[in-house]
């Protein structure tokens, strides 16, 4: 059974999506250096309860995503900034605590039903909602650039939509744990229909108020 070194975080990483980290704890300096030495990914798994810093054994969710290291910026005292990208999802089968960092036996997960006949219609629905959502974020200067060209394959589109959506990590965890591609796209469409009006209200500019006149 494959093993992964684990990096618990208060984020949910999706396959194909970027990850930027500042590495400063000694245990994670060791973890990243070992991954670089061995040419291996590390596993990003969301914390259910506990802290990212100083907590030797936080309570973790069972499903996470392996991260491939793309860039490393060395800093003083062994610290570093790294850029990575999500790869395959995994489920923790057995967790080990006998190293400075956590590691685990894992089972890699695959999305089912990738040739389901409902996928073109689901892609179109999610794509339209994602375009509208990105337009709202861009108008609030939360996304840079002009129009966004969306991925042409359903897996990449689904994980991009999950990455962009501004929802709590507990809800994102539900998405990363979904094993059926049509079910994932259905969930995303429902979430975007729910979240889009809220984001439009929250990020819309305040109404113009007339300047008050002095009573004199």
UniProtKB/TrEMBL annotation:
UniProt protein name: Lon N-terminal domain-containing protein
Domain Lon N-terminal, residue spans: 1-196
Entry-linked InterPro entries: Lon_prtase_N, Lon_prtase_N_sf, PUA-like_sf
Database matches in PANTHER family: ATP-DEPENDENT PROTEASE LA (LON) DOMAIN PROTEIN
One Pfam family, short name: LON_substr_bdg
Stored Gene3D superfamilies: LON domain-like
PROSITE patterns to which the protein is assigned, alphabetical: LON_N
